[in-house]
Amino acid sequence: MSVHPSSNIKRITTHILQEMKNRGEKISMLTAYDFSMAGIIDSAGIDIILVGDSASNVMAGHETTLPITLDQMIYHASSVVRGVKRAFVVVDIPFGSYQGNSSEALRSAIRIMKESGAHAVKVEGGAEIKESVARILSAGVPVMGHLGLTPQSIYKFGTYTVRAKEEEEANKLIEDAKILEESGCFAIVLEKIPAKLAKKVAETVSIPVIGIGAGGDVDGQVLVVHDMLGITQEFKPRFLRQYADLRSAITQAVEEYVKDVKAKDFPNESESY
């Protein structure tokens, strides 16, 4: 059973998320990429489900998030939406589907909303994507921003280390957060930045700020579900708290199944018709 005060609400909305920030209730957010997992974490009381382009890594085995396509994101999002009854579903617009062309950004966002049934889209960047954000919002599509370490720009950064440690980059991040709020974004994700800077951003803007590797003084937290459940165990950054060891549990279950099949123990008489 969910411990969230808002657990009795039929459907989370942007308005409810704003109310949660206003009253100091932390927002919980996890990724999901398929019907079954989405249904499990939705029933557990999660507030936001992100259909992240991290599906490129954890579902398809790519090194970065760049290869995943718009069609593939819509497929994953559609699967997730069918499994959700309460959570607010946000979908990443993938790399190459919105940068530098606001018309393409609008087309991508509309396709995601129409074909998946999701509730919002997420884009990476600040001032440089202001026009795209405005065009998407003009169609009535809610937009979540993403600043700090932006994985779609990994080849520009050249590393996954903490961002905005220097004053110039920190000041730009704060300004970008203000731009995203002024543009109409309903929330912002801050990834892998100093906790003090994240706190300042959360205090500067009035919209919810969700952190991943951004300390505890923001309005909510997000993790990749495969990471926090211990399914992917190679990735263990400081900010990750692993809540289960499903990789070991699944491995043990499969090994026992293989053993029982080989030993002709499965299926037994009671498991046969």
What structural class is derived from the secondary structure elements? alpha/beta
Q: Alpha-carbon distance between the termini? A: 37 Å
Q: In total, how many domains does the architecture comprise?
A: 2
Q: Which overall shape is indicated by the principal axes computed on the Cα atoms?
A: globular
* Biggest sheet descriptor: 8 strands, parallel, barrel
Q: In the CATH hierarchy, what is the architecture of the largest domain at level 2?
A: Alpha-Beta Barrel
CATH topology of the largest domain: TIM Barrel
Helix count equals 11
Helical residue percent band: 40-55%
Sequence stretches where pLDDT stays below 50 over 5 or more residues: 1-6
Subcellular location: Cytoplasm
GO molecular function, one term: 3-methyl-2-oxobutanoate hydroxymethyltransferase activity
EC number: 2.1.2.11
InterPro entries: Pantoate_hydroxy_MeTrfase, Pyrv/PenolPyrv_kinase-like_dom, Pyrv_kinase-like_dom_sf
Structure description:
The chain is an alpha/beta fold and 273 residues long. The protein has two domains: 5-242, TIM Barrel (Alpha-Beta Barrel), CATH 3.20.20; 247-273. The protein has eleven helices and eight strands. The protein has helices at residues 14-22, 35-43, 55-58, 70-82, 102-116, 130-138, 154-157, 167-183, 195-204, 225-228, 246-262; strands spanning 27-31, 48-51, 88-92, 120-122, 143-148, 187-191, 209-212, 220-223. An eight-stranded parallel beta barrel has the order 1-2-3-4-5-6-7-8, surrounded by seven helices. Helix 2 crosses helix 4 (70-82) and helix 8 (167-183) runs parallel beside helix 9 (195-204). The longest helix is centred in the middle third of the chain and has 17 residues, at 167-183. The chain starts with 13 loop residues before the first helix and ends in an 11-residue tail after the last helix.
